[in-house]
Amino acid sequence: MAKEEVYDRWHKARPKKGESGCPEHPGLVPSVDHGCEKRWQARWRDGNGRQRSKNFLKNKKTAAIAYQRSQRAAVEEGRDPLPHRGRKTTACVPTIAEYVEKFLTEHDVRDGTLETYGYRLRGHVVPALGDRPITEPRRPEYKRFFADLKAAGMEDPHRTQVKKALSAMLTAALDAPDFGHLMPGNQVIGIKLPQGRRQKARLTWAHVVALAEEISPDFEILIWYGALQGLRSMEAAGVRKTDMKLRLMKMEVEEQRQDGKAARLKTDHSYAVLPIGSYLADKYLAHMAKRTAVPSADVLRHRRKRGWSPRPEEFDGLVTVGRYGTPVREGALCRAFNLAKQAARRKGVKVPESATFRDLRDFMDAVLIASGVPPRSVQGRMRHGTLAETLDTYGFALEVDWENAPASFEELYGIPAPPGLPEAALVHQEQRTGRETAPTTPDRVIREGARGDGSLCDGAGKAALR
């Protein structure tokens, strides 16, 4: 008796002469369905001679063989095989455009992720495939869709992100009770696209110091939050006065700002209590002294024109606010960062053109690794979920220009300097500036009137920030 076999959808049964072989399965020729989720196809003919088939997952070959054997045996014995559903009506199947809206309404992810998915699906997938029933498009059509995006000038990293959003939507559609069983699996899985990651800008201390000097004074503290604490842009914008525990020389990372509103952090690992170096504490004290200044007449006039309160209480607890007393937005920080970058380049400091605020975080990771801080300690400081993320994704070889650093390692990061650092990394801030700078200690903070909530009081004990 011949061995029962099922059809392999990944490879051609009758390949043409000269076709290239499959790199993953020597001796076979790949088909257009290679890599699809349901690899094995059981085939049989019913009592009327019509071809019937059913597809099985790539790890279910044995189940496919058993199902095919049972169906053929039933037909040979004159029994009714298991009822075959046949082609279903598409009356209950939504179009891709319709399901995109349903997916964005029901998908349970962070608001920022959902907004990004909406931008990619509505902006790219719906115009090209929106009128098609979601069960129809197959892998070749999705391949053509991604090829058209590239022909239109979309870069590889952006195409990869569109694929990620589309794949998440199709995976969710497989669980739909009305039409999920009609879908041929997630046809996007297995499509290979070039990763094309953005080349990280290699910043140095000279670059960081220049950016801090050239950026708007209201945003200078954000540069140091990125380079010394590894905060993401909107995490830095979301730091509150109550997060700065100067008596303990610690800061809490508990929330970020998205579109001006408080939001959850990126991952559970992002929540942390980080040490503060005396250099950052000094910058914070100087920033808060300016932050408490009375708003200018232009600012007050603008707020009255918009119908805003003179000093909105809901934003008063933030360390950094924008020009009109509202939370810092991503776009405003990006523009300020780019202007600072251009100003630094005009003064001869060649800050990489591609540098973004995110590169400050990568810079801190690289400095800590290059300085000999234990990898597990770097992982905790960077708030990464895994050690591999710390070493592979962000860390890169860096020769640190400590002679351009604004202070010593310990003053910058609030942890003891690792052994083996060069002498330049141990030079204190007052020795670099050539003037006396009182060290920031818990006792000093108390003497200068820092309250428990992180705000400051003047010599008479009156609050400088209301």
Please describe what this structure looks like:
The protein is mainly alpha-helical and 466 residues long. Helices cover 40% and strands 6% of the residues. The protein contains 17 helices and eight strands. The chain has helices at 61-76, 96-106, 111-129, 139-151, 156-173, 205-214, 220-229, 233-237, 278-291, 297-306, 330-346, 358-370, 375-382, 387-394, 409-413, 429-433, 442-447, and strands at residues 7-8, 40-45, 51-56, 244-245, 250-253, 256-258, 261-263, 272-275. It has a three-stranded antiparallel sheet, covered by helices on one side. Strand 6 (256-258) and strand 7 form a beta hairpin. Helix 6 packs antiparallel against helix 7, helix 7 (220-229) packs antiparallel against helix 9 and helix 7 packs parallel to helix 12. It is elongated. It starts with 6 loop residues before the first strand and ends in a 19-residue tail after the last helix. The model is unreliable at 84-90 and 446-466 (pLDDT under 50).
Main sheet, how many strands, which sense, barrel?
3 strands, antiparallel
Structural class: mainly alpha
**Mean residue pLDDT:** 83
Q: What oligomeric assembly is this protein in?
A: single chain
Strand line-up of the largest beta sheet: 1-2-3
Share in β-strands: 5-15%
N- and C-termini, Cα separation:
90 Å
Proportion of helical residues: 40-55%
Which term fits the overall shape? elongated
Computed Rg: 30 Å
List the helices and strands and how they pair.
Elements: E1 7-8, E2 40-45, E3 51-56, H1 61-76, H2 96-106, H3 111-129, H4 139-151, H5 156-173, H6 205-214, H7 220-229, H8 233-237, E4 244-245, E5 250-253, E6 256-258, E7 261-263, E8 272-275, H9 278-291, H10 297-306, H11 330-346, H12 358-370, H13 375-382, H14 387-394, H15 409-413, H16 429-433, H17 442-447
Antiparallel strand pairs: 1-2, 2-3, 4-5, 5-8, 6-7
Helix pairs in contact: 2-3, 3-5, 6-7, 6-11, 7-9, 7-12, 13-14
